[in-house]
Specification:
This protein is an alpha+beta fold. It folds into three domains: 192 residues, HUPs (Rossmann fold), CATH 3.40.50.620; 59 residues, SH3 type barrels; 76 residues, Translation factors (Elongation Factor Tu (Ef-tu), domain 3, Beta Barrel). It is built from seven helices and 19 strands. A six-stranded antiparallel β-barrel has the order 14-17-16-15-18-19. Strands 3-2-1-4-9 form a five-stranded parallel β-sheet, sandwiched between helices. It has a four-stranded mixed β-sheet with strand order 11-10-13-12, with no helix packed on it. β10 and β11 form a beta hairpin. The longest helix has 20 residues.
């Protein structure tokens, strides 16, 4: 009997090829478009923001028709607003720079979407993420039954690898998840899509945060968080300019500060949201921009349990950063990352994701 896979069709070429490959492998494939955001929710935004989901839906529908698979549209707008958009805005209000893509994966794709698909009879869900899962050796659970365990790996295409955004995946979620693109390079995905005539084979990849569109982050946040001017200070306390609200700025930011620096530009090195102060320092090599340690919270481990601390591994603190050697330690309820080399712009709210080789072990939120 064929296994049933519900594929999250985003409208892009990656999820389309994932669906195509699964159908070719003999699965009963069902395409689902997740309606996550648009402007017809009451009071969704203070000001209009360009929305591209209508075009995404049409592209997903065309893919399903071309592949000859069932197509459904599921309305997750309220969940998305509460669990992703409101979360992001709240983090900015509190002075952090969140990662909404990771939260969308955790709460929607591998949360609500997976749960609904399973209720409707899906054996698996699949996405167009560039990542890979492999089966661990079988081990006996405490009750004596055999339990399969899973590992999450970075994709073969290191330039497209998205394991950084999937670090919150659990064993329970991996059991029911397929990543058909894990061993493919993007060029092969495009070539396959063109070969089989997918209508979106040459569609551009989405850029930036999906629900913001082309609007700069600062301008979007202004629709949710009021402007409030405050001082730009050096760490020595010298006023060098003004800003529009400390919540709009992120550690390491250079452009859009509102104050130049001639040949030696200023960078955001710290901020105090309560006092509405943004601290800046000159020069990309300024020591204020670098840290050798950080606190990390909300830890999630793919294996289902934490390693024994202190624990040596590698980490990245932003997408596509090269892996950095580090040691994770624990003191009571707090966890710390110590880096072997100073790290530039360690940004509260971003994810620190841990690896051993290509294996993604898990991660947490920088504080």
């Amino acid at each position: 009997m064929k296994k049933t896979v519900y594929v999250a069709l985003s409208g892009g070429v990656d999820s389309a090829v994932a669906a195509s490959l699964l159908k070719k492998d003999g699965y009963h494939v069902v395409g689902v478009f997740m309606r996550e955001y648009d402007l017809d929710l009451p009071d969704a935004f203070a000001d209009p923001v360009e929305c591209t989901q209508s075009g995404d839906r049409q592209s997903a529908l065309a893919v399903a028709a071309h592949l000859g698979i069932p197509f459904h549209e599921w309305d997750f707008r309220r969940d998305y607003r509460k669990k992703v958009i409101d979360y992001m805005v709240s983090e900015y209000k509190n002075g952090r720079t969140p990662n909404p893509d990771s939260m969308c994966n955790k709460q929607l794709k591998f949360g609500t979407f997976l749960a609904k698909a399973r209720i409707l009879g899906a054996d698996f869900i699949a996405t167009g993420h560039y990542a890979k899962k492999t089966q661990r050796s079988k081990s006996k659970a405490q009750n004596g039954s055999k339990q399969c365990k899973w590992k999450l790996y970075a994709a073969k295409d290191t330039n497209k690898d998205q394991s950084y955004f999937l670090y919150t995946l659990t064993q329970e979620q991996l059991v029911y998840t397929l990543f058909p693109l894990g061993e493919l390079r993007k060029s092969k995905v495009r070539a396959h899509a063109k070969k089989i005539g997918l209508p979106n084979w040459n569609r551009k990849d989405s850029q930036g945060i999906c629900f913001i569109g082309k609007l700069p982050m600062k301008e979007y946040l202004k629709t949710r968080i009021p402007v409030k001017t405050g001082p730009l200070l050096t760490m020595e306390g010298t006023v060098v300019g003004t800003h529009e609200g400390a919540w709009y700025y992120t550690i390491g930011q250079r452009h859009g500060i509102g104050f130049g620096g001639g040949t030696d530009p200023y960078y955001v090195v710290d901020k105090d949201v309560k006092k509405n102060i943004v601290y800046v320092a000159q020069g990309p090599l300024n020591s204020r921009l670098y840290r050798t340690s950080a606190t990390v919270s909300d830890l999630s481990w793919v294996a289902g349990s934490a390693p024994r601390f202190p624990f040596s591994c590698k980490a990245r603190i932003r997408y596509r950063q090269s892996l950095q050697s580090c040691v994770i330690t624990q003191e009571r309820d707090l966890h710390y990352i110590g880096f072997s080399k100073p790290q530039k712009a360690v940004t509260p709210g971003q994810a620190a994701v841990f690896y051993q080789g290509r294996e993604c072990l898990g991660g947490g939120i920088l504080r």
